[in-house]
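Recall the central idea of this unit: under ordinary conditions, the amino acid sequence of a chain determines the structure it adopts. In this exercise we apply that idea directly, starting from the sequence alone.
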Amino acid sequence: MTVNEDSFTNWKHREEIAESMIPIIGKLHRERDVTVLLHSRSLVNKSVVSILKAHRFARQIAGKELSVTETLPFLQALTTLDLGPSQIDIGMLAATYKADDRGLSVEAFTAEAVAGATGANKIERREGRDVVLYGFGRIGRLVARLLIEKSGSGNGLRLRAIVVRGGGDQDIIKRASLLRRDSIHGQFQGTITVDEANSTIVANGNEIKVIYADDPTKVDYTAYGIKNAILIDNTGKWRDREGLSKHLRPGIDKVVLTAPGKGDVPNIVHGVNHDTIKPDEQILSCASCTTNAIVPPLKAMEDEFGVLRGHVETVHSFTNDQNLLDNYHKSERRGRSAPLNMVITETGAASAVAKALPDLKAKITGSSIRVPVPDVSIAILNLQLARETDRQEVLEYLREVSLTSPLRRQIDFISAPDAVSSDFIGSRHASIVDAGALKVDGDNAILYLWYDNEFGYSCQVVRVVQYVSGVEYPTYPAPAV
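Accordingly, the structure predicted from this sequence is:
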């Protein structure tokens, strides 16, 4: 047998194993509300090739490819346990098992590692929580996709309605089409039908009422059977407590803003300060996409090295608030053509750091340049550290943070030497550390952080909503503190 034939045989064997994993992953998700992860990447509803690619990508993080032959035994072991709702990372199970020298079987090790999700310790499946989207633009439609994707178990969050301004003929048809097809993020994974007579979009069996309203104070959500709901405001029209309080109508319990909040509205970055949300807080903000990109790695660097001061420069994709061609705009420079120019503009991300990291005493400044790409941005975080270090120490530390720390869902790590912005479209992390671009000189470190300012941010929004709704389930093995 030739080398090529041997490689192909090996590939077909791994395909067969990945194929056998799909029904196990699906059954765990549907019947027990268990989400199977691989290094923080969900394997639910993934194809054979996607599962193999996720295992292959592990080499970018851990330096070595992970094989399905290594993870399948842990997946099979999960099926023998009395599991409750949880997220279980089989990549982490495989990695920690290798490092364990007690000689335990895979079954015994797995049972011990996920003990918090089994038997008397397991969380009971909770009743679903209604969610309403106010606005249906770029972030609104991506959040809708994520909510629909996560509704497969029948529990958790349920997207019940979207609220938009009254449109013209075939308004609901056009909005459904924008949900179905996206020029950047591709096709919706599933089926979408429209019931015009009842003003309803049905996506993967989820009935979503389309409510037309120009004024939030005019909507009674209980009239649509919606109760105790979390409303996600994607418009950014109201950003202070007074304005956002207009949403607190019959049927709405909490309001989450997908833009930086003003005044005393808490700015929440999931993974960093979401546990500071008070149970009775009804209004909160998920800050900005850039704030979500820089705050987790900033916290990680502060925890290990200390940060005396810093500056963030964001090279940001253009957005809908800019003009396609030169025209009047209330902001300076944003009136100039977005697809044809680099545009210097302001960013509030640096000032928002103080809300998310109040214990950080370092002064952080920031600025931004909008560039002619439709999605994915990069934040260049220039830090003066409290102690000297070297490039290798910082690299190893950030790689470990991305693998085992409580920030592993926020911080990703890539060492590919030819990585470019389009490679990160669809990333579910708040930011991705580019190992090749990192610069360290004594007490100065410059981090290059990629982030999908649309999809990665939307994932952070959904995580916050899951947390405040009480359906954010624990992850096993537990991350290192």
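The chain has a mean pLDDT of 92.
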